[in-house]
């Protein structure tokens, strides 16, 4: 299982780097390093994002080890748990990047967005399970993929890299690749809940329904 996770992850990330011509890779790495440094050295602390990352790590550790604590803690943390290492890595990396959204929106607005998106995704999952026999998929998919929608609309592209003479790869493409990998890893269940969460994110960010925005 571990070998398959490493193989899938390596294929996607190495392919994304090798499609750019050799003389362009240096600038690609510089952009990635600059974005990481900018995120990590920002003045805001993003406490909600840090709490989500910790909940994902602890919940995943509990799920993998089969550990149990008091029922109240289990009920809070187990929905944040992933059963596989690659899913945990992708989720934590995405949540780390999405900290910049909290800094743009303010923690109060960010936690409202996160709570509504996760609750709506859970409700739709439950309805789907009751009507079709769909098996519930654990993990904070509702949070991650609704934030991915917000990330797409609110965070600008800083740089693009030509691939076969076309500017189709940007610094945001690596985030989308990680999200794609997370969405397909558990097959139909992860793909379906990812689509549900993306739909919820589109509703929440829609201006026609008074959606969330990072400005204002």
Low-pLDDT ranges: 1-43
Q: Mean of the pLDDT scores?
A: 75
Query: Helix fraction?
Result: over 70%
Kindly provide the name of the CATH class.
Mainly Alpha
- Multimer state: single chain
Distance between the termini: 46 Å
Structural class, by secondary structure, is mainly alpha
Provide the number of structural domains: 1
Strand content: under 5%
Q: Which CATH-level-2 architecture?
A: Up-down Bundle
**SS element count, helices:** 10
Number of strands: 2
- Order of strands across the biggest sheet? 1-2
Shape: globular
Q: Using only CA atoms, what is the Rg?
A: 18 Å
What is the CATH third-level topology name?
Answer: Rhomboid-like fold
SSE pattern? HHHHHHHHEEHH
Question: Main β-sheet: number of strands, strand sense, barrel status?
Answer: 2 strands, antiparallel
Organism: Rhodosorus marinus
InterPro entries: Rhomboid-like_sf
GO molecular function: serine-type endopeptidase activity
GO cellular component, one term: membrane
């Amino acid at each position: 299982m571990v070998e398959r996770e490493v193989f899938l992850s390596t294929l996607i990330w190495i392919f994304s780097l090798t499609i750019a011509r050799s003389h362009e890779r240096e600038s690609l790495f510089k952009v990635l390093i600059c974005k990481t440094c900018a995120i990590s050295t920002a003045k805001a602390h993003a406490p909600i994002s840090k709490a989500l990352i910790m909940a994902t790590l602890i919940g995943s550790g509990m799920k993998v080890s089969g550990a149990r604590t008091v029922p109240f803690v289990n009920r809070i943390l187990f929905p944040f748990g992933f059963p596989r290492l690659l899913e945990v890595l992708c989720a934590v990396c995405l949540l780390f990047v999405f900290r910049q959204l909290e800094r743009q929106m303010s923690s109060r607005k960010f936690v409202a967005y996160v709570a509504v998106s996760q609750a709506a995704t859970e409700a739709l999952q439950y309805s789907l399970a009751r009507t079709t026999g769909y098996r519930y998929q654990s993990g904070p998919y509702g949070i991650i993929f609704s934030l991915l929608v917000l990330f797409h609309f609110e965070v600008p592209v800083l740089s693009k890299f030509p691939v076969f003479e076309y500017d189709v790869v940007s610094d945001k493409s690596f985030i989308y690749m990680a999200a794609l990998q997370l969405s397909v890893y558990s097959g139909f269940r992860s793909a379906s809940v990812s689509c549900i969460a993306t739909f919820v994110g589109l509703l929440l960010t829609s201006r026609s329904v008074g959606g969330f925005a990072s400005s204002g």
